[in-house]
From TrEMBL, chain A:
One of its GO terms (molecular function) is ABC-type transporter activity. Belongs to the ABC-2 integral membrane protein family. This is ABC transporter permease. GO terms for cellular component: plasma membrane. Keywords: Cell membrane, Membrane, Transmembrane, Transmembrane helix, Transport. InterPro entries: ABC-2_transporter_component, ABC2_TM, ABC2_TM_bact-type. The lineage of its organism: Bacteria, Bacillati, Cyanobacteriota, Cyanophyceae, Leptolyngbyales. It comes from the Bacteria. It is found in: Cell membrane. Residues 127-364 form the ABC transmembrane type-2 domain. The chain crosses the membrane at residues 20-40, 170-193, 221-246, 252-273, 280-301, 338-357. The keyword Transport applies. It is a multi-pass membrane protein.
TrEMBL record, chain B:
One of its GO terms (molecular function) is ATP binding. The keyword Phosphoprotein does not apply. Keywords: ATP-binding, Nucleotide-binding. It comes from Phormidesmis priestleyi ULC007. Residues 26-252, 356-585 form the ABC transporter domain. This is ABC transporter ATP-binding protein.
From TrEMBL, chain C:
It is a multi-pass membrane protein. This is ABC transporter permease. Residues 136-371 form the ABC transmembrane type-2 domain. Belongs to the ABC-2 integral membrane protein family. PROSITE patterns: ABC_TM2. It is found in: Cell membrane. The chain crosses the membrane at residues 29-48, 179-202, 223-252, 258-282, 289-310, 345-366.
Length: 368, 666, 373
């Protein structure tokens, strides 16, 4: 215990000394919070579209105006006569609606008019959103204009739970907490570990009788303190800026944060133990950490979308469990009964990572 | 042949499995260590007794550090039995204090934080910790700097702090791997005084590796290691005697010519080795009488003048050099293939006469004045030494002189150029070897040399010849395609030197070229430097090996950014007040302790088995010293005045300066 | 011939040969240029999938008639929804949604069949877990559409007077990797070029060889150019590797001109190397360089549109992203690969990237040179 504390005190003293790292330890997470929190929006608003109205009737004009009134579409500034070549190819507009010359005449004659919609499929998600929106608008347009004879036989009553306004920040921000706390504490831990190897100071630890477990725990404890600082700072700021707050019992989140921090620090230490210098360690954390926490944690798109062999990997990504806990705390609010499994998984992962790192450090000796 | 038998008898003297030898603190039998294909240590046996100071000396790459790693329990041996305090080293780690070659400290932690960390790691109880912390910091004169960062300490203070860290757990065994490399002479002496006190007063067993052979003289026993094996073990006296040779100190004004004559013209095998050593020649002879007459004869034949020829005991350095010569590992000297025929185009004018010139040079970093009003004047063909402790401002001065660092104020002229020191034409005329290794570790030796010859614009047809010269000089024939990173530090320095002179510079800057280089290679370095100077190159060299600084034509001592003394070596030594007295006495340590109570401690230092004492007024002080020692029942075997060495002069200057800065103690 | 001989004699040649020697020796560098990009492309391409399908659906069918079962099978017909469970009542369904066991819930009232037969409109309840706002939005759109379609089929005389004919261009199958992979290609190139060039300089600084280099007659531009040329070639290789993975593994189409694409990539490599050199000259040690590269690369990547579309960002970030060279390169990659754009469309990007490359390389050379003196 004494050795663990000695190790921990030393780490903190070094951390405090290194002004630049200290500053970046808080600036980088905040920057990440801002960029991810504000800039990751999956659903486009104000999509630029082109409407080519060959009909030029009252009805077609009403249709066009109505389309823009949904607040989802804005008219694109374009010139030319082929919307595909002149607007979509150039990326000026994301979709084009072409109203045929006999649009209103056809409807008046009781025939079905063909409305042509071209959508830029480059951004797959938004192509889908655009398609849905235009179809839904067309349907409601028909009803508003009383063009549908008779009422619909079945009315779906849609209820959106937990997030009725579909605020994307409510989904993204609790996830951002997970990404930040997965990357930065582990980055610092990996730097601290690999630096000792790079500079050779690790020999001092080897030459004393401190065990691998004690060394790791000492460093972990120090960076847990730092990590808790980062967590309070980032989560507090995130809650204030994005106006989110706990919707139920906050205790699973608070405890989960602690366990998650330990898991990510252990991950960082593991990488630091493997790497022989700081540059390799940071590459490791940046590549592995970012890929895992960003892509295989369900942060952006649902986990269920990840195809089979890769989906197995998600099970060993700590961030995945923490994001589950975090979203529950800020959006869903089921409390312990909903997230205890995730908590257990985090404990198991932290323990496994610790053991692997300990195994690699081995007998605390120089390699032969 | 005789040496061979001596070696064997020395090794068998070790008592490997004698159960009665209970005071063997360290016992090593048949130690082997292989890294992949390379055998670093191959069959080493030795044992160290309690309270002994045991020295490990040998050239770079002899396997000393590997041996320390294994003794310290941080590395597994490939084969062999190693016992420290009757346990495998790994289990004895808490009783071992281990100073690794570099970086045993956290430079971004303060002195106290470093100590506390080690105390915690080694589970020192709090009360004892603060006791020892105070005791050892006081012993090392560090008690005032508790909250200073380790990175801000001078090299000497760093090593003393590292020693403190090793001592807080009160180890019974201290392992010190080149603890004084990069440490200035003053701190070096203090460091060794502390070691002597630890072993004699606290019974700590000390194993120490050192490239300084004057330090090895202070060990109780010394093992000479070469190529992963111990060649010889014994007390310094035994080692010296085993050589079966005698040393003649020849003082002559024509050192260079005399050395030339003695090495090349000696026909009989009476003269074994000749070496310039400061202002004298050390000549090793197998028989003192015939040797001396031979030397005199040769001098006469060549119209050389010999002031005095004195008979003396061989030094450990003589042993080291001779033994390694016998191993055939002495680097050979090859003539540099000059394509320009030396630097003949030196113009004579006013200040452009000087190759390197500075007047009132200043440099500050923030509020810290690193260099204060430094004047330097170096002519072509001159070797100029800039001496001083780490952190005295030598490197900063060099960097300003060669245009790497902007100056705060002052005048500089380099190679006749005053304004633009960074022009390509000027730099082509300059050679620069910086303190850190300046070769690319990830390139082969050959690639490095090809690169430097190419980038300095050595014409392609001449490159081959020059590269071959560097490789031959470094003794690396057949190993040119080896990765530079795999070379031991000292070898890298040699290649780096070669790389920096291939283009035959007019001006050569050498910043600590011989730091970490073994004595043999150091000799070769100076031979080469002298050769370049003779051909008209201006050489500015920094060093803290003061003994090699004797080779400079002129030099300046720097202390805290200022030049405190300048002149030729003999001028500097002659300007020292007082007299240096050498005393041979029974118990050197006890005598030293006694005398230090009576006079300032820097005046007394232990040199192997004798004491050096600086007395300001010998006529008055010698009787006092005699009676003082006699009253303590210490028998004086001999007491004689000897000339100051440069190191003595340096220490005297620094200490007198420190004294005048602080009011004298009552 | 004479020119060649002069080149071989020159300092620049010596510097370049040295750089190549170091690169060839540096296993880590080669690894860095091959392994992470491939892995990143694969994982990004496979894992970042916005498809909305197989959403777990819980059905409480109080009506339990052929008609209600038909509605359920209509919902699951195109694979968007998948019936996961059928809880006995609304309360349990709600509980399951709350626990996140199912994403959507459908409640068909007992009066469903009766209502359909009468003129009274039948009302079904659809619950959607909207924690994931994006998925919920698309799912609710689908649900409404399917149910409407179903109800229209019940009354075939009600032919809708407007029919929307939707054509998806460039990526008709809406294959998500076609969007992600070209973006990640830009990301990978950005990371590769900036990291590799940073380490090329920082390593010299850290080992002290830079000081030695500065004492040689070589000029700053010679030192920098000798570093740029081999890295440039190496990074072009990385681009080829990435394009190969994109086309072979993900079958991303390559509709535009290959040489145009390589030209743009070369331009971006210069930008990346410029960023890397700038980082290296600004930072004092390797650790600083690494941390500041985080500081720079993270916003570059996130504000490039490689992962999340720029159009959906707040206005401020959209404007900010115009100053992001990666944004322009990502647009070029998507344009050339998916749309087959030529220079007549991409000339603004060409101008922007050239400006970035020139500015960055000029600044870093200048900074490098001032640092030396």
């Amino acid at each position: 215990m004494k050795r663990i504390l000695a190790q921990c005190t030393k780490e903190l003293a070094q951390f405090r000394r290194d002004r630049l790292t200290l500053a970046l330890a808080f600036i980088l997470p905040v920057m990440t919070l801002f960029i991810f929190g504000f800039a990751i929006r999956l659903e486009a608003k104000n999509i630029a579209i082109v409407v080519q109205d060959f009909d030029r009737s009252n009805l077609s004009r009403r249709y066009t105006e109505g389309l823009y009134q949904t607040n989802q579409f804005v008219p694109a500034q374009w010139s030319g006569d082929d919307p595909m070549q002149d607007a979509l190819d150039r990326g000026i507009a994301k979709a084009a609606v072409i109203i045929p010359p006999d649009f209103s005449r056809g409807i008046a004659a009781g025939k079905t008019s063909q409305l042509q919609v071209l959508i830029d499929g480059t951004d797959v998600n938004n192509a889908r959103v655009i398609k849905n929106s235009i179809q839904a608008f067309t349907r409601s347009f028909l009803q508003d204009q009383n063009l549908m004879s008779g009422t619909s036989k079945i009315t779906p009553r849609l209820r959106l739970w937990f997030n009725p306004g579909r605020r994307e920040s409510l989904y993204i921000v609790p996830g951002v907490f997970g990404v930040i706390l997965a990357i930065y504490p582990s980055l610092l831990a990996a730097l601290a570990m690999s630096r000792e190897k790079e500079q050779g100071t690790i020999l001092q630890a080897y030459a004393s009788s401190i065990s691998a477990a004690e060394l790791l725990l000492g460093k972990c404890l120090a960076y847990l303190v730092v990590g808790i600082g980062q967590a309070i700072f980032v989560i507090g700021l995130g809650c204030a800026i994005f106006r989110i707050w706990f919707v139920g019992d906050p205790s699973p989140f608070l405890i989960g944060t602690g366990i998650f921090l330990i898991a990510s620090i252990m991950f960082g230490l593991l990488i630091g133990v493997r790497a022989n210098n700081r540059s390799v360690a940071v590459q490791g954390v940046a590549t592995a950490g970012f890929l895992l926490a960003l892509l295989l944690s369900g942060f952006i798109y649902p986990l269920s979308n990840i195809p089979f062999p890769l989906s197995l990997v998600t099970n060993i990504v700590p961030a995945r469990y923490f994001i589950e806990i975090s979203r529950d705390a800020f959006v869903r609010g089921t409390g312990w009964e909903g997230v205890w499994v995730a908590q257990v998984c985090l404990v198991v992962l932290a323990f496994v990572l610790f053991n692997i790192a300990r195994r690699i450090l081995g007998r605390m000796q120089l390699p032969g | 042949m005789t040496q061979k038998t001596v070696t064997n008898s020395q090794i068998t003297e070790v008592r490997p499995t004698d159960p009665a030898a209970s005071d063997d603190v360290i016992r090593v039998i048949g130690l082997h260590k292989h890294y992949d294909r390379v055998a670093a240590v191959q069959g080493v046996d030795f044992s160290v007794r309690r309270g002994e100071v045991f020295g490990l000396i040998g050239p770079d790459g002899a396997g000393k550090t590997t041996t320390f790693h294994i003794l310290g329990g941080v590395m597994e041996a490939t084969a062999g039995d190693v016992q420290v305090l009757g346990q495998p080293p790994r289990d004895a780690r808490l009783k071992i204090g281990y100073l690794t070659q570099q970086f045993s400290l956290y430079l971004d932690l303060s002195i106290d934080e470093n100590l506390r960390y080690v105390g915690g790691l080694r589970q020192v109880p709090d009360r004892q910790f603060s006791e020892r912390r105070e005791k050892y910091l006081r012993l090392m004169n560090l008690e005032k700097f508790g909250d200073r960062l380790a990175g801000e300490l001078s090299g000497g203070m760093k090593q003393k702090l590292a020693l403190c860290c090793a001592l807080v757990s009160q180890p019974q065994v201290l392992l010190l791997d080149e603890p004084t490399t990069g440490v200035d002479p003053v701190s070096r002496r203090e460091f060794w005084d502390v070691l002597a006190a630890l072993s004699s007063e606290e019974g700590v067993t000390i194993v120490v590796a050192t490239p300084y052979l004057d330090e090895a003289e202070r060990c109780n026993r010394v093992a000479l290691m070469y190529d992963g094996q111990i060649q010889q073990i014994g007390t310094p006296a035994e080692l010296r005697n085993s050589l079966g040779l005698h040393r003649l100190e020849v003082h002559t004004p024509q050192l260079q010519a005399a050395e030339q004559v003695l090495t090349t013209l000696s026909e009989s095998d009476a003269i074994v080795d000749v070496q310039t050593f400061g202002d004298r020649l050390d000549v090793l002879v197998s028989d003192p009488q015939t040797g001396e007459s031979q030397v005199r004869e040769l001098f006469r034949q060549n119209h050389l003048q010999a002031d005095t020829i004195e008979l003396a005991e061989p030094t450990l350095e003589n042993v080291f050099v001779t033994r390694l010569r016998q191993q055939g590992s002495a680097p050979e000297f090859f003539e540099f293939p000059r394509s320009r025929g030396g630097n003949r185009n030196v113009t004579t004018g006013s200040s452009s006469d000087f190759a390197i010139y500075s007047h009132n040079l200043n440099r500050s970093f923030g509020s810290f004045r690193a260099v204060k009003n430094v004047n330097v004047e170096v002519r072509y063909g001159e070797i100029f030494g800039l001496l001083g402790a780490n952190g005295a401002g030598k490197t900063t001065t060099i960097k300003m002189l060669c245009g790497l660092l902007p100056i705060s104020s002052g005048d500089i002229s380099l190679g006749g150029e005053r304004g633009n020191l960074r022009s390509s034409e000027l730099r082509r005329r300059i050679g620069y070897m910086s303190q850190k290794f300046t070769l690319y570790d990830d390139l082969t030796i050959l690639q490095n040399l090809e690169f430097y010859s190419g980038v300095y614009g050595v014409p392609r047809r001449l490159r081959r010849e020059k590269i071959d010269w560097v490789i031959a000089t470094c003794g690396l024939d057949g190993r040119e395609t080896m990765l530079t990173g795999q070379l031991p530090g000292g070898w890298k320095q040699r290649v780096a030197f070669g790389a920096s002179v291939m283009h035959e510079p007019d001006i050569l800057f050498l910043d600590e070229p011989t730091s970490g280089v073994d004595p043999l290679a150091r000799r070769q370095f100076w031979k080469l430097i002298n050769d370049f100077a003779r051909n008209g190159t201006a050489v500015l060299v920094t060093t803290h090996y003061l003994e090699e600084a004797e080779q400079c034509n002129r030099m300046s001592f720097m202390v805290a950014g200022e030049i405190v003394t300048e002149g030729s070596p003999s001028q500097i030594k002659a300007s020292q007040p007082g007299q240096l007295i050498e005393v041979v006495i029974d118990q050197t340590q006890a005598a030293s302790n006694l005398l230090k109570q009576q006079m300032e401690s820097w005046r007394v230092s232990i040199f192997a088995d004798r004491l050096h004492i600086v007395l300001d007024d010998p006529d008055r002080d010698i009787p006092i010293v005699r009676s003082l020692l006699k009253s303590a029942n210490l028998t004086i075997h001999s007491l004689r005045p000897i000339p100051f060495s440069l190191e003595d002069a340096f220490i005297g200057v620094v200490q007198r300066l420190a004294q005048s800065a602080t009011p004298e103690e009552p | 011939m004479k020119l060649l001989r002069r080149l071989i004699e020159s300092r620049f040649w010596a510097l370049t040969v040295k750089e190549i020697g170091q690169i060839l020796r540096n296993k880590q560098l080669i690894f860095l240029l091959v392994f992470p990009p491939t892995i990143q492309l694969l994982i990004f391409g496979l894992a970042l999938n916005p498809d909305v399908q197989n959403l777990k659906l819980g059905v409480v069918d109080y009506s339990n008639t052929p008609m209600s079962r038909e509605l359920v099978s209509a919902l699951t017909a195109n694979g968007v929804f998948r019936v996961d469970r059928a809880p006995p009542n609304e309360q349990i369904l709600g509980e399951q949604v709350r626990r996140g066991e199912i994403i959507t819930g459908l409640v068909i009232p007992p009066t469903f069949n009766r209502d359909l037969k009468s003129d009274h409109p039948a009302e079904v309840q659809v619950l959607i877990d909207a924690v994931d706002a994006n998925t919920a939005g698309i799912a609710s759109g689908y649900a409404a559409q399917i149910i409407n379609h179903f109800s229209q089929q019940l009354a075939p005389q009600n032919q809708a007077p407007i029919e929307t004919q939707v054509t998806i261009l460039y990526n008709p199958g809406l294959i998500s990797s076609w969007f992600i992979v070209p973006g990640v290609l830009g990301l990978v190139l950005n990371l590769g070029s900036s990291l590799v060039s940073t380490s090329a300089i920082v390593r010299e600084k850290d080992t002290g060889t830079l000081e030695q280099l500065l004492m040689t007659p070589a000029a700053a531009w010679e030192i920098i150019l000798a570093k740029v040329v081999p890295l440039f070639v190496l990074l072009l290789g990385e681009v080829m590797l990435a394009v190969t993975v994109a086309t072979l593994v993900f079958h991303v189409p390559f509709r535009g001109n290959f040489f145009l694409f390589m030209g743009f990539s070369g331009l971006y490599i210069c930008v990346g190397i410029g960023i890397g050199f700038l980082l290296a000259t600004v930072s004092r040690s390797q650790q600083q360089a690494i941390l500041t590269s985080f500081f720079i690369n993270l916003p570059l990547i996130q504000l490039s549109g490689a992962i999340a579309p720029i159009e959906s960002m707040p206005r401020f970030f959209q404007i900010l992203s115009l100053f992001n060279p990666l944004r322009h390169y990502v647009k070029v990659v998507r344009g050339v690969l998916l749309k087959g754009n030529g220079l007549e469309v991409l000339y603004p990007e060409a101008i922007a990237l050239t400006a970035f490359a020139v500015a960055l390389l000029a600044i870093s050379t200048y900074k490098f040179r001032t640092q030396l003196s």
